[in-house]
User: Fold these one by one.
Assistant:
Number 1:
Amino acid sequence: MKYQPHLPEQDNEQNINVSHDQPLKTLFTLLSGVLAIIGVGYGLLGVCVDFAVDHLPDEVETLIARQFSLSDPLSNVVQDEFSAYLQTMLRELQQCAGVGYPLQLTLADVDQINAFAIPGGQIVVFTGLIDQLESENGLAFVLAHEISHFQNRDHLRSMGRGVVIMGLSALITGADSVITKLILPTITLGEMRFSQSRELAADRRALAILNCRYGHVGGGTEFFSGLLSHADNAAGSVWGHYFDSHPKAMARVERIQQQGDEAGFRVGAVTRLMAR
Amino acid sequence: MVELLIFLVLISVGYFFGQRSEAKHFRSIRARELELMGLITHNGKHPLGVDQLGTVTESRLVYGSVVISVDYFKGVVAGLRMLVGGNLGTYETLVDRARREAVLRLKESCTDAAQIINLRIETSAISKGNQNQVGSVEVLAYATAIYTQ
Amino acid sequence: MFITNTEEIAGKKISVCHGVVSGSTVRAKHAGRDIMAGLKNIMGGELTAYTELLTESRDQAIQRMEDQAQQMGANAIVNVRFSTSSVTAGASEIYVYGTAVTVE
């Protein structure tokens, strides 16, 4: 018996045991395909979620909201005369907005310029933001803006989509899989665009609330005009998303003024903010 | 945004280093296979040409094993491919490399043997990364080396 | 091409030995089939999607081994062994190897 060996890739033969596709090309084809499917699915989900949110009874909303609380409780909550004054302000604005369920305001001693709303009716304001403002009207606008988000159920909307798509991806590929991790940033990007149109709607509503409370909309743009000079220090902060997802300050000031004019709101003298 | 950036960095690092080391490994495998081509290797129980073999002085169990890790890029491409179905090309090159390397190491451990018979190859994934991801592939090749005078 | 898992091919004489040939594949089914298989796990029964996957992988691996033997100019493969491992969950990995020979 003879022994006549032959190697797997001898004489420039192709390696039979592997698929000969270009890995980079495969990556791009698959990635664009998967992202396209996710995009279409996300759009469809959005429509479904919007429909569900619009038809949700108030009781169910309160029930859902109760499931959420700050996962990381704020450590430097301020409770003094000033925060009581903010609470009163919130009550008055809430009455104007006609929000039925209780809202809570938390003042946190943090230097960053930010305010945000947490599902469940909680509004958190950082002292950094208070220090930026001179008039009560400016602050009232920010609070009215967050109230409008609650009224439009924007939190439920964005949460609904995010939860559903993450759930689907985790079901198909596993919670820790590369795909789920890949989808995560895509969703956040999508949500930012999503929330920008909701931001403008919230601004419009906030103006109406402001007009109801003070009889004019003077000072409404104060916060965002102030931002223009502080945009730099905010960009890298933890709460930087507040600025990313909110339309650029300059354009926003113009939009708010335009919205005010369209609605025929008067611009009057501002009330000074209580000293802290 | 940060996650996306980390992902892009990891995938390009994985692609650059992974593809480079894979090409290098394949070059080395081909060169060494050519070098050890003359060493009779098969997976039958009996040596070839028993009549011309001469006096057998020793038969010994020999092994070769290797553990090769997946890179981030391969993992992502395979993860996407698993959604669509079909051949996971990036893992195929991985196991191909591992098996050929294991057999080569086996041969290198007994270059002066007359024949290598009863070759067996086992594969296992020793460390699975998180959930579905491949961590690394382990291949063990074992055989009997026959030495003659 | 004769493919056997015995040392010899009955009734034939092996004239040339070409060394070890192998075929390997790593294949997966699309995610929809994975989900269906997951549901089937609740009720029990044959997971047709995975049986199909295994058959496809095995056929492809054997085909690759045959192609390799053909490249060598062999006309038979003896002593064929299968080795399977789960390289990754949801994908099937099959390795088949044998000795390529020429029979008269």
Number 2:
Amino acid sequence: MNAVPLEPPRRLLSISVDGVEARVPEGATILDACRTQQVDTPTLCYADNLTPVNACRVCVVEVEGSRTLVPACSRQVEDGMVVATDTERVRRSRTLVMELLASSVEMNLASPDVHRWMADYEVRADRFGAPMPPLPAGARDAREPGHHHDPQDPTVAEGVAQPVKIDNELYVRDYSRCILCYKCVEACGVDAQNTFAIAVAGRGFDARISTEYSVGLDESACVYCGNCIGVCPTGALMFTSEHEMREAGTWDEQEQTVTNTICPYCGVGCELELHVQDNEIVKVTSPADHSVTNGHLCIKGRFGFAYVQARRDDDPTRRRKPTERGAS
Amino acid sequence: MVGLATVFGAGGGTSSYEEVENTDLVLLWGSNARAAHPIFFHHVLKAVNRGAKLIVVDPRRTESAAWGDLWLGIDVGTDIALSNTIAREIVVNDLQHHAFVDRATLGNAEYVDSIMDWTLERGEAVTGVPAEVIREVAHAYAKADRAMICWTLGITEHHNAVDNVLSLINLSLLTGHVGRYGSGVNPLRGQNNVQGGGDMGAIPNKLPGFQDVVTDVVARERFEAAWGVPIVPAYGWHLTDMFHAMERGDLTTVYCIGENPASSEADKHHAVELLQGLDTLIVQDIFMTKTAELADVVFPASNSAFESEGTVTNSERRVQRVRAALQPPGNARDDIWIINQLANRLGAEWGEVTPHSAWEELRSLSPMHAGMSWERLEELGGLQWPCPDESHPGELFLHGRLWAFDDPQAQGPKAPFSIVVDEAPVDELTEEFPLRLTTGRRLDSFNTGVQTGGYTSPLRRGETIDVSPEDAERFALAEDERVIVSSRRGSVEVPVHVDEALRPGLVFMTFHFPDQVDTNVLTIEATDPKSGTAEFKAAAVRIDKMPERETVGSVSGGGGE
């Protein structure tokens, strides 16, 4: 290669993580430093292909000289920084974040990492009471900032349970599972898609992800790229195929293979990860570290595979025909 | 591909997507990348969000143009007039990169002579773009530290496609915006693996690796030795030539793999007649396409992206692995397997060819692919050509050699300017056909819709003829009103959509829904003699109200079956 501008060499900075000295390049975050030291740090709103938004506060650490706890995912390392991740204060804060989320949100489809952290931190979501019964469709969307709600029955934990929003054939929105990590908003916005179809509406516990005026996706700016699904950590945003198979009890990740290939449409060459169960594509993702896509796709790349399945309509081994869609 | 190969000797985009993010100015010319290449546009938006200038040249004010600092709404087919005007403005203001022009290019004096009558005023009169805007673009492009020109089918689907490309390359030579990180000239390939098809020699004048079949004797002999057969040192036909040869009766047997010319060719009535007139038509496809319905023999093929092993090449010259995720249905077989079987039964004795063995053979014959072992392609997520040996990381951008001013050996052949002349589209506007029809893609659909028709897109609204609010008023057209659109070749029936992105006199259709509306009945078969690309982008049409009593089916090409 010739004439490629090399980045200026980066200074190495010293940092102490839980008493162990480490050297990281300038610009690295405390989370980067923790990871190089194999210090297991829980994260929910952080993703490698998005700008940190500091929404969840589950990665907080103690930094010597800092009055408050510091989010590891966004704070850049300074030379000589002394960080503690295993103090009582850090553990209590992280535990409380996870307990409050788990008491109000359905977390069962979060990643295995999240479940491991919840176990490690001995999260007891039930100590705030039994889960609240689901609210009617649209109830949370109608709440205005400043409106007062009377406290619920104290034996019941306030929650966000509500019916799944199904307003198109490509993906569903199950906001009973939404922890407000903002990842979908970032992916829809400047971090990738720049469509700005969704944002956070409401304040306090009424905050929720919403289209403008809570309109259906068909009336919104949504272009169905599904990049919000790609970054959702809790299964709140999901392919319709996955949702239906889960409802029918046929979703089985143990039986699925993931094969990387290249999208057959335009000439950009996006890398697809095809999740296949019983010789059928059930989900499409893209690797976050791929230089072409950075994990993001368009509507054709993410959903445009159906034609290969349609060729199998006559195939008796095919488990689920398109005509059966929505019947379950 | 022809234009880039003529000037630089290699038919590929010069830059990487990564560079787009770090450039200072993107000139997007004849490309609605926001809809047609959405993930490429993500890289453009990264540049825009960090302050780079985006200038969009397109007759329509597209979704891409909406992101631009400037939109140049040129009249269809006046691209050369615009680029020559920009070039003159650069020259008369002494904004050329003198060192680069003097020491890395050829023919500058003659080129400059050829553009000197393209004053801003004349440019405005021909293109419809205000002189002041042309001036601003010329100055911004020439003065930018790094600048990139990217184009798509708005440049290449014209009868003078190659000249259009050459005229854009001229701008890059004049300003030294090529062969450097962040500066380059880049065609965005409209279809997966268009680049790879060229790489693998599926063009009439090149062997794999862009080695000329006539002039590169050494390469030809290398292939002859490896394949054990003589190779005729003559250029073949591209698709349009083939149709002309069918017309003359010189071409009587066609083996058509993964193409659907009965639906996709401009002036398709004629294309279907010619295909019907063949002695033998073999079609190998994943679907029973309109072309397959005309065939004597159909070979059911596996899908190349989801059911096959192999490689494709993208618009940044990255060779990437495709892998089989699904078992193909029924008797469908991999393309390589079918061709292999056919060859063996014809007595060629190829033995058993696998995707991997075919790739190894390619590497041994194409120097630009030599360093791309199967293992490296797996490991590195693809490699960009040229990659001459296994220690080579793949080339981020092309033609850096041109900047080796003091080392003629390393610099290699200098890049020639091309004298290009403005030519109006072949299909003239007249009183009878007063409207300019241009065609393009929508975000959720692709080409003739055979693939994208398979999924239910909430954005899909079927075919429409998009007209400007001014024309809707002039012809008293209402939204959703069905009208008859006619060109010199045929008529279709289609609903109206009023779209503010269009200017008076310009109408727009896609060709995604041929079963509903057969747009290519209207388009013109005029093709570029150098590349064989058809002029899908410029037909002359008129819009007529439906007759009082609708007689569905009486209009050729209209309605559905």
Number 3:
Amino acid sequence: MPEDGDPVTSRRTVLKGSGAALTAGATGLAGCLGFGGGGGGGSSAQPVNEDSLTVWHAMGGGLGETLNDLGSQFEEETGISISMEFQDSYENVLTNFLGALDSGEVPDFAQIDSLFAKQVLDTEAVEPVEEIISDDFPTDDFLDNVTDFFQVDGTLASLPFNNSNAIMYYNRTAFEEAGLDPDSPPQTLQEVREYSQALVDEGATEYGITWPNHVWFVEHWYSMDGQLLFDAENGHGDDPTTLRTDNETARGLYEWWRGMAEDGLYSNPGIEAWGEATSTFLTQTAGMLLTSTAFVAGAQEGAQDEGFEIDNALYPGVSDKQVGPVIGGASFFVPDGLPDDRREDIAAFLEFMASPEAQVQWHKGTGYYPIRQEAVSQLESDGWFEENPMFRTAMDQLTESDTSNPATRRMLVGPARQAQTTIQDTSVELFNGDVSIDEGLQSMKSDVEEELERY
Amino acid sequence: MSTREVFDSRREAAAFLLPTILISVVFLYYPAVRAVGLSFYNASFGRPNRFVGLENFLRLVTSSDYHSSVLITVLFAVIVLVGVMAFSLFVTFLIHEVDVGQSVYLVSAIWPYALPPAVAGLVFLFLAHPTLGILTHYVELLFGIDVNWFSNGRQAFVVVAVAAIWKQVGYNVIFMIAAMNNIPDSLTETARLDGVGRVNRLLRVYVPLMTPTLFFLVIMNTIYAFFQTFAFVDLMTGGGPSGATNILIYDLYRSAFQFYDFGLASAKSVVLFVVVGALMYVQFRVSDKYTHFGG
């Protein structure tokens, strides 16, 4: 029956066609990335918006509002137009900025997470901000441990802006319920374990502690213990070649972590799951939380809503050493090769953002550190820290840090995202008991070494 | 062959085809060719591309992580394909047989399909979340297990597979119910008179007549399992824990958009293309044997 036969073949052809097209689509996915290569900007950089300065940032929610307020104030004071463009996440800002540097059409500022600083520096398409801001700007007024990270060869490469480190928050109400003294929170991982056990045994909370599985916390345990995570001074001296896992810090950390997971004292919110970790703590499922100092404002509000008393304490160390935290957060990078008149406007914005007034406002609105000594003094004389003891603890952790110890300078490595992923993924295998501690640490080390070599 | 020649003028036909061809070339074939080319380079941001020959492919061949990713993907695709087809067929049959409230059942079966993949991923994440999930408690009671799929790879794999199946059932039900309703009532009557039981009626009478539709669904579900389940992995597990849900399409995305290793990502996309292409070919060969196209 030829009449029926033809539609049949065509139906089959259509099927074949659609199958082939869809598989080809997958290949196309990677083909879209054809912008690799070239090498960036040089003198040919073009602003994405001629009429206005453009900032690509990753500050959502309340943080974004505070940032927008600062932008409006800058416009009022200087008459220079500026547009703040939210890019959803640090990863997106990085991807978009690297793409922009490659194409030559660039924003004037990109807020880059300190973890990815090296990748941006390696493009050699950014201009050190110290060369842009005027010579009489007091660059020596920046806090040491902030500039320590952001200086490259003694020059300030990018403007540190929102900086924080990790700290421990705890539920005072639950502590009391479990018969623990809320005025003496745990200081070491061993004590965290004892406190967690008490919280769970007394039924005050379901778990003892939680934190997002992010490399930043591992970095903190290393720096608190005065231990370098990478050779070559965490990448600040030279290009690093290895991950340092053959030490008591690493073994102590992962043995503790595994024990906590096995005994149901640690709640794993997932990889890079900041929001879930916070919810677990605020819903009183876990009694303690490790997260950013920039959460102080949010923590106070959240605890009030949930009806419990909250406090914070120094980051608990692997041993009883308290060397100091690593700096996290982000800084503003400026592309190289923008015209001189534009660079003047850019300088004006950088100086505005680094001014003590802007810093005080930013700190109060968010909990990120003020990066200028003068801003800290001003906050102190206003009595801000006395009224807000949780901000005090966060500030103490930073100022009491031994900045002469190279371990407090955060890792500065090219394949940072790869190293981060490897450490986080292997952490899961380690605390989950899939591999022995030695095996896990060894594979973590060799995987990272491979990435470092390839970069 | 008369049905083929709708246009007398070849030029006219070419003009009508032009937009499709143009869009396909610009957005599909050109990038695909570029990807193949790029797979021979070490390419990243801000640094010149370097020709490395087959090094990227060599890395894939020797990488144990990649091997396990291939294995996981195949296993995942098989489970999702079989799971979706079997469950959808069962649901469709129930809807077909029920007398009262057929449309209510139909709508509720199709519902998950109406959600965008990203929303479905988030919904399922919070339904099955180990500490905050609504379903978690009951699953723990029912099966006597400790729901811990953020740490436990096997559980994570199951959760993502279940989510992927749940999302795709609606799509299958739409096609299956249409095919089942096309089966003449006289056949159903005859089967009943001959005393054929329900299960046999489904498997021996309906399924053979539905083969063209089922074959179409096998193709679509395979493509779905390989590519469109990306959103679930991205939102729910990020490929983890420790690579347990790192299916090829997610692995490719991570190489490209998180590690900026464009050369390697291109090599991975070429491999994926070849794997799925080969699979399609096999499916067509096999189905030619068993598919009943009528006539």
Number 4:
Amino acid sequence: MALQLIIVAIIGITLSGVVGILLGKGFKWEQAITTTIVIISSVLGLIGASIGIFSEATTLKLFYWPTIGGALIGLDGLSAFFLIPVFLIGGLGALYGMGYWKSSEHRDSSQKLQLFWGFLVAGMGLLLIGRHVFSFFMGWELMAISAFVLVMTEDKEEECRKSGLVYLLATHISTLTLFVFFALWHYATGSYVFQPIAEGALQPGMLNALFFLALIGFGLKAGMMPLHFWLPGAHASAPSHVSAILSGVMLKMGIYGLIRVGLLLPTPPSLWGGIILTIGAISGLLGVVFAIAQHDIKKLLAYHSVENIGIILIGLGIAYLGRTYNQPEWIALGMAGCLLHVWNHSLFKSLLFFGAGSVLHSTGKRNLDIMGGIGKKMPTTALLFLIGAVAISGIPPLNGFISELFIYIGLIRPIALGDPNAIGLAMVAPVLSMIGALAAACFVKVYSAVFLGSQRSEDLKPVHESPKIMLIPMGILAVLCVAIGVLPQYVTLVLESVIHQDILLSIVPLKTYSAFSFGFLISIVGLYIWMKFRSKKPKEVLTWDCGYAKPTSRMQYTAASFGNGFAIMFDWVLHSKVHRTKLNAVMPDRVNFESHVNELVLDRLLKPVFRWTQNASSWFGRFQQGASQNYILYILIAVLILMATLVPYKEWFVPFIKN
Amino acid sequence: MINIFNSLLVMILALNLLALGSRSILSVIRIIALQGILLGILPLVLNEGLSIPQLIASLTAISIKGVVIPMVMIHAMKNIRIKREVEPTIGFVPSSILGAVITGSVFLLTNQITAGNGNYVNMIIPAAITTILVGFILLVTRYKAISQVMGYLVLENGIYIFSLLLIEAIPLIVEMGMLLDLFVSIFIITIITNHINNAFSSLDTRRLTTLKE
């Protein structure tokens, strides 16, 4: 039943864009009809997935395909858990897109965007219910290619084309790695179906090969640290609701792959968990450090995705180690943190991207240093963005805190109970707390630079509040963020059903926390109402301006200056490039200051390596002259060389040797 | 029968050398048409008895390779009104000599590989390899697009000779498919040739290098 609902939802979402194209560009209600189909299908999918979380695992043969044995699909708690953000953000994003990317304003790209939005959501749905390499890859490629088209929506811009190309390369490397993985899988197990490998059935070398291929293939899609290079550019160039689904949902497909592979492989060696934990810690820390140094609000949010993927991987690492040392408690806490953070991140990151899109829609700019004072003109957006910012920083009473709480307890509790294997886990705890602190600092910077103060630059468009159709999806996401934060014990029931353990509530006192959290929330709301309705209005005065007679809004503290303290602290990895003109007189002329940070992997490693390879291999260019005769000659030479291997040279010389 | 078969093969090899050495495109087309007809006869001579499917296959091969394709090509040549000379990179005499050297050395080498493998096989493999290599030489040394098509045809003939080895294993339908393939590709190539002529006002494939990125 649940699975059938999800199949109907996937088909509906796939067809939504096709319906839009059939209706034609001129038709007035085309976008509304397309969006309605997406939303109805998403609701069906959400119902199906919610039933699926609490029911037994099922499988179904979708259709028969003789050569590979049929497209097997299925639903279990894990798939259903990941399907919920897919359909939620899929539906809300389409609704948001109606306001953000109106078909009347973007005639040439709106239909393309709607069509591939549907394909992207359907692809992710299909890969999550795939139980056979064939159905899995169908979904995976549909997702990867539609995401490419969506990133390239504004393909008239140079920067967009560049990041689209980088994304395409990255996603193909990922797919190729997974091809190798599944070929090896078939070689080792003799089947393309996702079935758990029995203990001791395979050699450790084969298992290691499988694991590391999966880690690279899925890790590239998830955007973990050394393989995240495609992520900031792609997320910054795409339209905001596309960035939201890419960052909030598509990255999680990589995480889903790692969890699924972990379930299929037998008991892992401690090396695997250790590596995931380490990568998680590195991604988390460097992600947030690079985020602080960004000036572009969407790039900043994209680096925060790297950070959050790091946190999710820390949780996953705990669970892997828990399997190694046979500690159900570690598995429960690690998986709970990992899974809940998947949900949470999809909620607040989509909320933040929607908010950033709202600002971008209104001001037309992405640079943090020229905004300011927008909160007064867009109060609802500002409030919703604030909720997202508090949630992503992991501050109670919102949802980000709960998932990080599970992970903290998972990191610290084993060593508190005196487990000798847990020293490595405890070492990650301070890193996680540092990530949290830096994330909070980063969002203080974003929020204050964009929404507080006064407008810094005159060349912004006149700012206006976004239409309701953009605010409603943000509102729903914000309510969900608060709901998970205030009532975590009910979400824990979902988690316990997915991970098949019911010890979470006995370890973490969530009911007590919920009461405190509720009180906290009520007092905040009360404080807000009191501030709003008290008779004495606050007085507007200038800040102290060092006695300068004519202060302007450009003298405000900027985002870059706020972030500079952290940038100096982490300059050993950031290597900020600063260009400034020296002050050389008492009354100096006009001076300039500019700073930017190069991408760690893309700009500093991959581009130089590729440039070097290109230069080193330029000699081969002479063989590519464009003359077909030459190419045929190369084929002829290759054929002759191959034929020459058939010649029995040995027999020719044998008579001489004998004599 | 073996004698007739072998003498047909020798004639095909001789036609290879003629194709390498002739100056006018029209005569190359005729040589290749003749080669196609001889190839069509080959399978009939190979077996003692005659079966209807074999007869059909042979007749189709003869009509396509010997009649239809040459006609299409002659038609194309008339359409584009080109100078009817071949324009090779290396001269006619050197390329004939090269062809002869290749024929000789292939026979020498394959003799060693397939020594004592039944009677007619001895001849098929070297003849096939030689024809394929001659096809390659035609492809590499001719500049005009239409004479490259001839190279392609000779190459294809070589592959056809190879397939005689498997004459009992290949079903009729596959053979028909191969012929259809050949016909369609020649058809397309002549159309492309026409377009090249229109776009570059010449059939010299050296001009295509401007298309290089």
